[in-house]
Amino acid sequence: MRQAIRALGWATKIFWIVIGVFMITCLYSAMHLIQANMDLMMGGRLFGKPEVSLHNGTTTVSLSFPFNNTGFYDISELSVTTRITDYNGTLISLSSTPEPLTIAAGNSVMMRHNISMSLDDMISKNLTYLFFNFSFNETAFNVEGSARLKFAHIFPFQISINGTMPWGAPLNNFSIGEVTSDLINQKMIIPLSFENESPYFDVGGILNFSIYNYENEFVDSRTISLPLVRSRKSCVDFPLELPVDFSKLKERGRIHFFFETSIFSFEKEIKWGDASD
Amino acid sequence: MLVTEKRDEKTFVERIMPRVFKAAIMGVITFFLYYMLPTLMFSMIPTESLPSEFGSFFSKYENLVYVFAAIMICFAVAIQLSSGTIFQHAFSIAKAIILILYFIYALEGGILTLSMSLEGIMVNIMANLTAFLAILISVNLLALAKSMFEAINFLSQKVEQPPMEISKEEEMASIPELK
Fold first, then answer.
1. The architecture CATH gives domain A10-167
2. Is B172 on the interface with A (CB under 8 A)?
3. What is the nearest CA distance from A263 to chain B, expressed in angstroms?
4. Do B142 and A163 touch (CB under 8 A)?
5. Å from B173 to nearest chain A CA?
6. Is B49 within 8 Å of chain A by CB?
7. Is the full-model pTM beyond 0.80?
């Protein structure tokens, strides 16, 4: 009995010492970690400049940020997830870190997180209004970001942020005015107008437009480069001139626009003339 | 008869004084270990450079550390004062049970959450400390088992002793009076 008591006594003492040392070093490490990364965040240096790219109809915003593990213990299974929904709750983007990261104690890594938005997805979810018919709004998108990690291989942590993101359609009120014909020069004049209400990027790129008559017969097409329209409230109103064969052109029809910028590409069709039937 | 009572009183005072002295020393040591050291550690945390919500979170845990220190000091003194009696083991058992309940309360069942607003953005932090809580409970269960064994051992030794048998100390104490 005495030996069992002595053994239990020693085991308890040793466990208490180990737990005490572990707790103190964990707290110290966590404090250092929070402070080191909080300094980066408060100094606005947590996120580098976001890179925007377009590939196969998917717009990708790449965020890179340094993560400095100044503690005594490893950080494992580090993953970041972002979820963007519009004000109706429709999912626009759900992106996660492809592979969880492990950052050894004392190491620093540059983490990269990609937020992808597929154009096909947006069309299928009827989100095209975000490009063509959405005035600037401070709380247009709900953004939820979460980071999961395991501290010292034993404590799972989850840090999540909830916020809103302003948005405005880059081609807001994209429309054409009254189409006129210049019979002398055999030209069709299409007054095009839109406003760039996007708070993030300037709009400029290539605009391809094709004209069809009401019999769905192709009349003509043209590609022009659109001048750079600065972000927020820039109004563009300019005429598109297209030499056409007036024998093919009827009094009504449709114009198919294909717009391509470095950030997104989009198609839109607008009817002209009395094209209600 | 009067002489015997006086002798008993003296032995009680003589017996209690070293215990009180030991209890005081244990109390001071426990106070230093569980109150002074954590206070020193908390003062080293630069809470002013952290968001205010972190500060309130730490102050909550600062208070809980003081409660822990109070539990430890009270039981250290009580155990020392009642050493050599069954109460010593009863206090040890009570201490282990109270510590288990305290850890469950302090660690909120193992899931700690903290919500704060950073420049208008809501930040939620969640820590899953269930594994750590399980370790703490296990160590306290170990201490509980040890205290129970000690209590059983103490009682069995009492049973083995003849009821009227005088201990060696009492025997020695009675020698000058017999003379």
1. Sandwich (2.60)
2. no
3. 27
4. no
5. 29
6. yes
7. no
For chain A, which residues make up each domain, given as ranges? Answer: 10-167, 172-272
**Rounded-to-integer distance, Cα A154 and Cα B132, Å:** 8
Nearest to B139 among A19, A24, A163 (CB): A19
Per-residue three-class SS string for A120-153 = HHHHHCCCCHHHHCCCCEEEEEEEEEEEEEEECC
**Looking at beta carbons, which residues of chain B come within 8 Å of A13?**
none
When computed from its CA atoms, the radius of gyration of chain A, rounded to whole angstroms, is 29
| Closest residue of chain A to B130, computed from CA coordinates | A155
Can A10-167 and A172-272 be said to share one CATH topology?
yes
Fill in the amino acid letter for B160. Answer: E
B100 within 8 A of B137, measured Cβ to Cβ: yes
Q: Band of the pLDDT at B104, cuts 50, 70, 90? A: very high
pLDDT in tens, A86-103: 878 888 888 888 888 888
Least reliable range by pLDDT among A122-126, A143-147, B4-8: B4-8
- Does residue B88 register a pLDDT over 80? yes
Q: Which residues pair with A208 in a beta bridge?
A: A223, A258
Total domains, chain B: 1
CB-based contact B146 A8, cutoff 8 Å: yes
Domain spanning A172-272: which CATH class is it, in words?
Answer: mainly beta
Write the ipTM.
Answer: 0.74
Strand-pair partners of A144: A83, A162
Q: How far is B22 from chain A (nearest CA, A)?
A: 20
Whether the Cβ atoms of residue B124 and residue B115 lie closer than 8 Å to each other: yes
Cα(A222)–Cα(A188) distance, integer angstroms: 12
Range list of H helices, chain B? 2-31, 37-44, 52-81, 86-106, 130-160, 168-178
Structural domain for B88, as ranges: 2-178
